[in-house]
């Protein structure tokens, strides 16, 4: 548990060096809102394909941490290329390559953490909260640093952060390995594709994660449109990440008392409320306060969804299912959201964008309320 927590802490600290500022980074290179949205969509396309491929390969390896180590080593090298690049085509190529490895790293780690936690008797959320804490610290500090230095240095700082990430990765515990004959890649894909409860849960996650992906990418440009101080962009992400820390810690207790799907529905409802308020009001103080709902929603959904996916998955395809869920929610949601979000923001403005996000997250809320008693979800919604 300690070694996993340390890795999550440093990995998310490194992620906070660049992730909240991607749209501003690309904008600083002179790209338009639509061009930035397409760049982020290409990032997301790679993020859909890579977890599926890497997850299936990972389930067939004798050492499930092998691909994670490859990702952690390669990411900072590719990221360094952003610091020296200038043209759109180069940024596009780097975005696809970087996303291939970064989008695979966390599903692989989450799959390992859930399995280790089940073996050792601790919840996934108890280690994931350290990532939320470090992300809050990093995004808060770097938001003010980049206001003075500019956003291009973000990947240079991430490269420096790769050292503690690599060291902590070497101390990760062994992952339980399934016994018996290994399924083929086609069998793995077929198992996931025929799992109807899993696919339905993926759809609900897609609705909510698309909303979250658009918000994550375009909140800085929403700040610019409304005339808010851009120095507080990092603070906005930090506020959300800080509340994630106690919420990750509390999620296991809340699930034990209320059940998984009521907590997931509450998470989606909180996000719907946030999006509606950003549509209805133009106030920086309120926007910063609403980031608390952002953090509550993400922590509860991310912490519980990983465990639901694990319980809905075949024993020999745990990593494949986690990767597929990440690819089809975070990844595909990012593709559709970022491709359309930039255009919506540029043509109709930020208020309209958040009205659309409200509708999507409200649909997710309704489905999560209805689904917990549907056939096939019993294993993923134990009685409280």
TrEMBL record:
Membrane topology: Multi-pass membrane protein
One GO location term (cellular component): plasma membrane
Keywords: Cell inner membrane, Cell membrane, Membrane, Transmembrane, Transmembrane helix, Transport
Bilayer-spanning residue ranges: 6-26, 38-57, 77-101, 127-146, 152-172, 198-218, 230-249, 261-281, 293-312, 324-345, 351-371
Principal cellular location given in the protein's record: membrane
Subcellular location: Cell inner membrane
Domain of life assignment: Bacteria
GO molecular function annotation: lactose binding; lactose:proton symporter activity
Domain Major facilitator superfamily (MFS) profile, residue spans: 1-376
Pfam families hit by this protein: MFS_1_like
Protein name: MFS transporter
Species annotation: Cohnella candidum
């Amino acid at each position: 548990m300690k070694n996993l927590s340390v890795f999550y802490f440093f990995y998310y600290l490194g992620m906070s060096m660049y992730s909240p500022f991607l749209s501003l980074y690309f904008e600083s290179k002179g790209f338009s809102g639509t061009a930035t949205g397409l760049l982020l969509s290409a990032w997301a396309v790679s993020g859909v394909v890579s977890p599926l491929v890497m997850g299936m390969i990972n389930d067939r390896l004798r050492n499930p941490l092998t691909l994670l180590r490859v990702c952690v080593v390669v990411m900072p090298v590719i990221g360094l290329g952003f610091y020296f690049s200038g043209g759109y085509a180069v940024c596009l190529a780097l975005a696809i390559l970087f996303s291939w490895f970064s989008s695979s790293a966390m599903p692989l780690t989450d799959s390992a953490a859930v399995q280790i936690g089940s073996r050792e008797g601790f919840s996934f959320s108890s280690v994931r909260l350290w990532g939320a804490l470090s992300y809050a610290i990093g995004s808060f500090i770097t938001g003010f640093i980049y206001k003075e230095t500019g956003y291009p240095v973000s990947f240079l700082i991430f490269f420096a952060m790769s050292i503690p990430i690599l060291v902590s990765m070497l101390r990760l515990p062994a992952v339980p390995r399934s016994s018996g004959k290994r399924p083929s890649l086609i069998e793995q894909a077929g198992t996931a594709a025929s799992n109807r409860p899993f696919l339905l849960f993926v759809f609900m996650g897609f609705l909510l994660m698309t909303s979250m992906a658009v918000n994550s990418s375009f909140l800085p440009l929403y700040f610019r449109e409304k005339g808010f101080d851009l120095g507080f962009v990092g603070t906005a992400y930090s506020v959300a990440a800080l509340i994630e820390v106690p919420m990750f810690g509390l999620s296991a207790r809340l699930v034990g008392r209320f059940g998984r799907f009521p907590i997931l529905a509450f998470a989606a409802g909180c996000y719907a409320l946030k999006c509606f308020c950003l549509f209805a009001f133009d106030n920086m103080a309120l926007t910063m306060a609403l980031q608390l709902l952002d953090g509550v929603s993400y922590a509860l959904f991310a912490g519980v969804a990983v465990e639901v996916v694990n319980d809905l998955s075949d024993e020999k395809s745990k990593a494949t299912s986690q990767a597929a869920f990440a690819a089809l929610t975070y990844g595909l949601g990012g593709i559709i959201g970022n491709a359309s979000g930039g255009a919506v923001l540029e043509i109709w403005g930020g208020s309209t964008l958040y009205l659309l996000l409200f509708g999507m997250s409200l649909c997710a809320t309704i489905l999560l309320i209805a689904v917990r008693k549907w056939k096939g979800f019993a294993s993923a919604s134990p009685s409280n």
